[in-house]
Write a structure and sequence with these properties.
By secondary structure, this protein is of the alpha/beta class. The chain contains 28 helices and 37 strands. Among the domains are: 182-337, Dimethylsulfoxide Reductase, domain 2 (3-Layer(aba) Sandwich), CATH 3.40.228; 512-636, Beta Barrel (Barwin-like endoglucanases); 654-895, Alpha-Beta Plaits (2-Layer Sandwich), CATH 3.30.70. An eight-stranded mixed sheet has the order 5-4-17-16-15-6-7-14. Strands 21-23-22-25-20-24 form a six-stranded mixed sheet. Pfam families: Fer4_11 (PF13247).
Length: 897
């Protein structure tokens, strides 16, 4: 079957239609009776209606699980929170977890069986075909069958794959993992002779050297690693000795933004630095490097608190020397078996056997889009007589296969998973099934393997065999906790080989180097169906509704291009056109291409948003490829959302480090003629710690998910009309070659002396008895005088009635009213959560999502509350405090080097 024709550029109407799930549940939401589709064993929060429940479950990223609590109403999941007990979430969320409910309720989800791209209403034809193929495979022992999946750590899925291969011994299993780093596995083999992964304990680190690593950036372990890093910062403040974070990288990252010392180096320069540091400890030949001696001294001084991390795209030698250095230093690292290591072939291996393939089952993978350039997936799918794709979306691979079978969303089905550290958890349905024809992935495998496939039967069979007579009690316990206690493997007591021999460095690359990287919001492309993530600004650069290649200022000047200029990129004879973003802090000679864009078939989203970096990505060098050529085309493309300068011109202050027991001197406070207003009861306030904020945007998306904030589309976003109630400003300083970045979340300040209140002609914005600055939407007549007088620019005007345009029932979170066209809306400190908490502890959505616990919220009249303690710190200051607006939201300054 031929590939689909390229789609026209996205238009506003189709984007708003695709964004319908961001405004509402499916049309049936709120109309179904509550059903026992899982086990809602978590206590119901105060003030929540009887038809609501909270389910502990788990969602995967690259095959590794993160625990969540799914809040449901009327049988439908409406919000996800992190599970505090799960080691991969620790109560926090990231942008991918927050957007999962949007994908669940996506109106464009796959809803029907398809044959050759044609939807079928009757499953009889598929059942007949499937029975015939099973019978044929039984006769041949599975000869000619290939199973292709994404990365798999699930115990049940692995057991079922093994059972399928036992039924058909001649069949083979292959894995397509776009985010896999083969050099990391090779480095572990070089150091230890076996596949292991290192789990750093950042909370115990006092000096970290990141060689191209981004532990604070997006990924399956981000939430745990960010929490550990924040804990180390907090311990350092108490001890008077802040941990040092040294980052060597080619492309600016979240970890680099928080570094105490950042080195901008090309990939070869990072390897040279790593080799020189290792040589200072006795590994490899002596190597001269100007930065190696002071870094080695810092690591040596830190002793068992020293930690070396090697990142995605580094050669195997860097991964091996990182393992060796950590062992030499006694670093806080655990070595565990790789939870994703599997007896499976690769996608390239599958193509090498293409002539022998007669049956191809692709389970929840999209190789027609994310395969490296040069691998002829389309040709394979045309040649295979019988192909079946099973997935949640009708994607590029679904249209290229003979058959497509809709899968249930992970929030709709039973299963299990393992986290990055190997901790197992059960997945249970947290919502009624929204697609009648869909089947759970494990149910499909169980059926093919000849096992019971109903409901929880496959996963129960896995754990019944493991637990024996204790099954019933442990099953309920695991469902309630959201994880299986003590299921993580014990650390491996192994040391690096004594004869580790690092391979010689690669020859110096000529010309420009292409670096491929996961996109901060689209990841590897699987999230390109979600409008929330398209409209979420990238943490660095701020681009939304599109992508750009990242180019150093020096290289941009040499080419004579500026932001938005369209370049022709050529690598190994393949060409791609993409706009450029001139990026301070980018290594000269290095061009970074984010993956995940350019999808032609992305559910209900229009095709062609961003560009397809996979079309240039070499199979042999998936992360770093030399030989890139650039040519300006003379065309230009507007970069939606990119703001070179911060909206507020004030730089965030920094305070100096102090010795143990010494108090940080208080920052200067502007004088005021106003007397402080005293609240007799509770007084709500917020304090945001800029020292631990990593700019990940989880708070922004959590606010959007909680408060029914609509998507406006690229045309409106380009005019500055996005509706986010919370933004994260980037405060940049320093020269372009060594730019420093601070992040500052900016919600409504809830000012005591709010300029917005005194100018409203209809008294629509008011102060309540607990200090909240509130909006009375029925009063608002849209004069926007409040927005014009807000110095923080945190009020949003609903220009087009976005909440009604998609035609869906707007009942996403019934606790928060939907706002009509022509009114101002803004952050309310999650007033509905305050009311639901009653006399208990209230948490805002942004506070709950934050992986580093940088956001403190509560009653500032309670001297023992975390927010009151934070406001008493010497680092506390008010944004634009000289205006004397008396904001209830204040900040804790970042601690400098």
């Amino acid at each position: 079957m031929t590939a689909p024709d390229p789609l026209p550029p996205p238009d506003r109407r189709s984007l708003l239609r695709a964004a319908g799930a961001s405004l509402a549940l499916a049309a049936a939401a709120g109309c179904d009776d509550p059903q026992e589709f899982g086990a809602p064993l978590h206590a119901r929060p105060r003030g929540v209606s009887a038809d609501s429940a909270s389910y502990a479950t788990v969602l995967d990223l690259d095959g590794l699980g993160r625990g969540v609590l799914a809040r449901t109403l009327g049988g439908h999941a409406i919000k996800l929170e992190g599970n505090p007990r799960h080691p991969a979430s620790l109560g926090a969320t990231d942008v991918f977890l927050e957007s999962a409910v949007l994908a669940l309720h996506d109106p464009a989800r796959s809803r029907h069986l398809r044959r050759q791209g044609r939807a079928l209403r009757d499953a009889a034809e598929f059942e007949t075909w499937l029975a015939a193929q099973q019978a044929a495979l039984d006769l041949r022992g599975g000869e000619g069958l290939r199973l292709l999946t994404g990365p798999v750590a699930s115990p049940t899925t692995r057991r079922l794959i093994a059972a399928l291969l036992a039924r058909w011994p001649a069949a083979r299993w292959h894995v397509q993992a776009p985010m896999e780093d083969p050099a990391a596995a090779a480095g572990a083999m070089l150091a230890f002779g076996r596949p292991v992964v290192a789990l750093p304990a950042l909370s115990r680190a006092t000096c970290v050297l990141a060689l191209g690593a981004d532990p604070l950036g997006p990924g399956p372990a981000q939430l745990a690693q960010a929490r550990g890093w924040a804990a180390a910062r907090a311990a350092g403040r108490e001890a008077g000795r802040m941990p040092a974070l040294i980052v060597a990288e080619s492309t600016p990252s979240l970890t680099g933004a928080k570094a105490d010392r950042r080195l901008t180096l090309p990939p070869a320069g990072i390897e040279a630095l790593g080799r020189a540091v290792a040589a200072a400890f006795g590994l490899g030949p002596a190597a001269a490097h100007p930065e190696a001696a002071p870094i080695a001294a810092a690591l040596r001084a830190a002793g068992p608190g020293a930690l070396v991390l090697a990142g995605r795209g580094q050669p195997e030698a860097v991964h091996a020397l990182a393992h060796w250095l950590n062992a030499r230093l006694g670093a806080p690292v655990r070595l565990v078996p790789d939870p994703l290591a599997a007896p499976a072939g690769t996608l390239a291996g599958l193509l090498a056997q293409a002539e022998a393939v007669t049956h191809l089952l692709i389970l929840d993978a999209n190789p027609a889009y994310d395969a490296p350039a040069g691998l002829d997936i389309a040709g394979l799918l045309r040649r295979v007589p019988h192909s079946l794709h099973a997935g949640v979306q009708v994607d590029e691979t679904a249209l290229a296969c003979g058959w497509h079978l809709p899968l249930r969303h992970p929030l709709e089905c039973w299963g299990d998973s393992r986290a990055f550290d190997g901790t197992a958890a059960l997945r249970q349905p947290a919502t009624v099934p929204l697609v009648e024809a869909a089947i759970a992935p494990d149910a499909l495998l169980a059926r093919l393997a000849g096992e019971a496939a109903d409901g929880a039967a496959p996963v129960q069979a896995t754990w019944r065999a493991a637990w024996g007579a204790d099954f019933e009690a442990r099953w309920l316990q695991a469902l309630e906790a959201g994880l299986i206690a003590d299921s993580a493997p014990a650390p491996l007591a192994i040391a690096p080989r004594a004869d580790v021999a690092l391979p010689p460095p690669a020859p110096a690359a000529r010309g420009l180097v292409a670096v491929f990287a996961p996109d901060a919001t689209l990841w590897d492309g699987r999230f390109a169906t979600e409008a929330w993530l398209h409209e979420l600004p990238r943490p660095l650069g701020g681009v939304m509704w599109g992508q750009a290649v990242l180019l150093a200022p020096r290289d941009a000047a040499a080419l004579g291009v500026a932001d938005g200029a369209v370049l022709e990129l050529t690598l190994a004879g393949r060409r791609l056109h993409a706009p450029v973003l001139v990026t301070p802090g980018q290594a000269p000679g290095v061009v970074t291409l984010p993956l995940g864009g350019g999808r032609q078939v992305a559910g209900g989203m229009p095709g062609g948003i961003g560009f397809d970096a996979y079309s240039l990505r070499p199979a042999a060098a998936p992360w770093v490829a030399p030989g890139l050529a650039l040519r300006p085309t003379g065309a230009a493309q507007a970069l939606v959302g990119h703001l070179p300068e911060r909206a507020l011109a004030e730089a965030t202050p920094r305070v100096r480090r102090v010795a143990a027991g010494e108090a940080i001197p208080p920052l200067p406070t502007p004088r005021s003629l106003y007397e402080p207003w005293r609240y007799p009861g509770r007084a709500w306030g917020m304090a945001i710690d800029l020292d631990t904020c990593i700019g990940c945007n989880a708070c922004v998306l959590a606010c959007q998910a909680e408060n029914n904030t609509p998507v406006v589309g690229p045309e409106e976003a380009a005019m500055g009309r996005t509706m986010h109630w919370l933004r994260v400003d980037r405060v940049e300083s320093g020269p372009p070659e060594d730019r420093s970045v601070d992040f500052q979340p900016v919600p409504c300040m809830h000012c005591e002396k709010a300029p917005c209140e005194v100018v409203c002609p209809v008294n629509a914005t008011v102060h309540d008895a607990e200090g909240l600055n509130l909006m009375v939407y029925p009063r608002c007549i849209g004069t926007r005088t409040c927005s014009n007088n807000c110095p923080y620019k945190v009020r949003r005007f609903n220009w087009a009635g976005y909440a009604r345009q998609a035609g869906a029932v707007p009942v996403r979170n019934p606790a928060v009213p939907l706002r009509p066209r022509g009114v101002i809306e803004k952050c309310t400190y999650c007033q509905h959560r305050i009311k639901a908490a009653g006399e208990g502890v209230a948490e805002t959505a942004c506070q709950r999502a934050c992986p580093t616990r940088a956001i403190h919220f509560g009653d500032i009249n309670d001297p023992d509350s975390a927010v009151a303690r934070a406001k008493r710190e010497g680092r506390s200051y008010a944004l634009l405090g000289e205006l004397d607006t008396r904001p209830r939201t204040t900040y804790l300054a970042r601690i400098g080097a």
